[in-house]
Write a structure and sequence with these properties.
The chain has 277 residues and is mainly α. It has one domain (4-276). It contains 12 helices and no strands. It has helices at 4-36, 46-65, 75-102, 104-109, 115-142, 153-178, 182-196, 211-215, 218-230, 239-242, 250-269, 273-276.
Length: 277
């Protein structure tokens, strides 16, 4: 039977190993972020220019020409926030899907928990999101919008989006190791989700009978709740206004369930990664 001192030593070693892994997650995340813009003239500015360029195109086409959002106050900020959050989801899941294969050389040479790679990939995308949100805050401030203390709830929505993206990345990353077709399947799914998540159009343009269906989608729920908190609390349709009873918990519970079951599946097949990549 282990003595008290032996148990303390074991606990100390486990804590040190765990702490080292978190250090590895941080180092890999920063390295991934830096490598993404290595050799480019504008460097990190591309992380800001990409969503701004997409926002400009969407605003010109859908707001100026097609007159989307003409009845929504602060629609440019409304649209920009949606584009930035969507870009994070698309980047995080796309990078997460390729993370294990991209790090195949490292996996073959060194043993460490494979979840480290997935967490680093998600955190790298989170760094880009943080930079982009600075631009969103500037646009919101220039519009004279003062959200107030309730903006702290926005951090909870970011955590929800992180869990959703990470959970999907667990499944995609594990499946992509064996089935490379998933890169094309996920591209199609992302295109469908983009138009099914109210990224560019206000929900009041959709017939009321479809609001509940759209807001069961966690991405739509996150976008609408974020817009309600930061941009337009009076004209944004949210999940709590449309869905009532236990069903209202579905979009909030899905990210947690995906993260848990995604992690379980990922850990179950992780031992074969070194052979399959």
């Amino acid at each position: 039977m282990p003595t008290k001192s032996e148990n303390q030593l074991k606990t100390g070693v486990e804590f040190k190993v765990s702490r080292n892994y978190w250090g590895l997650v941080r180092e890999l995340a920063v390295a991934d972020f830096k490598l993404k813009y290595q050799g480019s003239v504008f460097g990190y500015l591309w992380s800001l220019m990409k969503p701004l360029a997409l926002f400009g195109i969407l605003y010109l086409v859908f707001s100026v020409l097609a007159k989307f959002g003409s009845n929504i106050d602060h629609y440019p900020q409304y649209l920009l926030l949606g584009v930035v959050l969507w870009n994070y989801f698309a980047e995080s899941t796309g990078n997460g899907m390729r993370a294990i294969v991209d790090k195949s050389d490292l996996i073959r040479k060194v043993y460490f928990p494979r979840i480290v790679i997935m967490l680093a990939s998600s955190l790298s995308a989170l760094i880009t999101l943080a930079l982009n949100l600075v631009v969103v805050v500037i646009f919101i401030a220039l519009a004279g919008i003062a959200p107030g203390f309730i903006t702290l709830a926005f951090l909870g929505l970011i955590a929800e989006l992180f869990l959703l993206s990470l959970g999907i990345s667990f499944f995609l990353g594990a499946l992509y190791v064996r089935y490379r077709d998933f890169v094309y399947i996920w591209e199609v799914v992302l295109q469908l989700l983009f138009y099914a998540s109210a990224v560019i159009f206000p929900l009041n343009m959709v017939p009321a009978q479809y609001h509940a269906l759209l807001l069961l989608n966690p991405i739509s729920q996150i976008l609408q709740d974020s817009r309600d908190i930061l941009v337009n609390p009076t004209q944004t349709i949210t999940t709590s206004e449309v869905i009532h009873g236990p069903l209202m918990l579905v979009p909030y519970a899905l990210p947690v369930l995906l993260a848990v079951f995604g992690f379980i599946y990922f850990e179950r097949v992780a031992s074969r990664f070194a052979e399959d990549v």
